[in-house]
Design goal:
- The chain has about 220 residues and is α+β, with helices and mostly antiparallel strands.
- It folds into 2 domains: about 5-105, 4'-phosphopantetheinyl transferase domain (Ribosomal Protein L22, Chain A), CATH 3.90.470.20; about 110-219, 4'-phosphopantetheinyl transferase domain (Ribosomal Protein L22, Chain A), CATH 3.90.470.20.
- The protein has helices at about 35-40, 45-65, 125, 130-135, 140-165, and strands at about 5-10, 15-20, 85-90, 95-100, 105-115, 175-180, 185-190, 195-205, 210-219.
- It has a 5-stranded antiparallel β-sheet, covered by helices on one side. Strands 1-2-4-3 form a 4-stranded antiparallel β-sheet, with helices on one face.
- Helix 1 (about 35-40) packs antiparallel against helix 2 (about 45-65).
- The mean pLDDT is about 95.
- Bound molecules: coenzyme A (COA).
Length: about 220
Amino acid sequence: MNSDVFLQREMPHGQCVILRFGDGIDWSTHLTEAEAVFAEMLPLLRRHSFTAGRAALRMALRMAGTESGDLLPTERGGPNVQTGFSGSISHKDGLAAALATKGTQSTCGVDLEVVRAKRPDISRHVLTREELDADRELPAEERMRVLLLRFSLKEAIYKAIDPFVQRYVGFKEVRVTPQELGAADVEMLLPESDPELVVDAHWERFGEFILATARAERV
Ligand SMILES: CC(C)(COP(=O)(O)OP(=O)(O)OC[C@H]1O[C@@H](n2cnc3c(N)ncnc32)[C@H](O)[C@@H]1OP(=O)(O)O)[C@@H](O)C(=O)NCCC(=O)NCCS
């Protein structure tokens, strides 16, 4: 495998590709003409993450069984994937992750985070009252580990549910409880005005990185 490919395999919610970017790694030959024009308009750092994200998603979609057209951003910010497939992108610290699935009924979402020794405590912004209470007695390091997992799972869920709800969904509108071995319990707390969804989430740790994935389907 190309050493600039960090990971390329099937995961519980779809085909996953993670690419390294920066340090002279060039994924621009994987862009369509329209994507290259779009990338040119972006500031340099953003151009690298956009380009690697598109390259990763194109590879993941190929693994899911399709050749992709222009994967330009939709009005809501996610990648515009052809009908019959779903795709999602995340980038962090020189890695770009993409997840792709086949199917018209369900959508997928991905989020990549890096485990740092020192992180700001964002629990009050991200966790529901019940989540805060559940984590209160944990040792400090474990509490921060669970916080990062909950955060990442919620971001992956946001990307998966966005095509259905088409609005900003706050972090406290979803309750997630990470379990061992990558499982996670998900409770959607959306108002009745939103479509009723079944959402499933999963996480994995790769060295200093956490990858969270999600799948959403209308009830
Ligand atoms: C949109 C959001 C999830 C992106 O996360 P991030 O940590 O800033 O950045 P990431 O690298 O993980 O993801 C960036 C990618 O998200 C995708 N994205 C942006 N908006 C999106 C949306 N509305 N729906 C789906 N995907 C979206 C894009 O593909 C983007 O990459 P690209 O611009 O190169 O194509 C985040 O900025 C946000 O608004 N979060 C708040 C809402 C939330 O997470 N709620 C949780 C409860 S459900």
